[in-house]
Specification:
The chain is an all-alpha fold. Helix content is 38%, strand content 0%. The longest helix has 14 residues.
Length: 79
């Protein structure tokens, strides 16, 4: 729901007068209800961790000259 609102407001932002725009400060407090531990199944039908790893490794090898992958391989921050 928030994503829908964000997308709808995005087109209206250009109409805000920057000169008359007031600064709004907020002070929200996170209120968590009682926490409940949930078991998440790790085995999914049609999903093979080994096959996924192969697919990712192949993609990285084929695109090793891409700027983002090259930076990650050299431990350089992404900008």
């Amino acid at each position: 729901m928030l994503e829908t609102i964000r997308q709808r407001l995005r087109d209206l932002i250009k109409f805000i007068d920057r000169e008359e725009q007031a600064i709004v400060y907020t002070d929200f407090v996170d209120e968590l209800e009682e926490l409940e531990e949930v078991a998440v199944p790790t085995h999914q039908t049609g999903f093979s961790k080994e096959q996924y790893c192969k697919k990712v490794e192949t993609y990285i090898r084929e695109n090793q000259n891409h700027i983002a992958i090259a930076k990650l391989k050299r431990n350089v921050p992404l900008t």
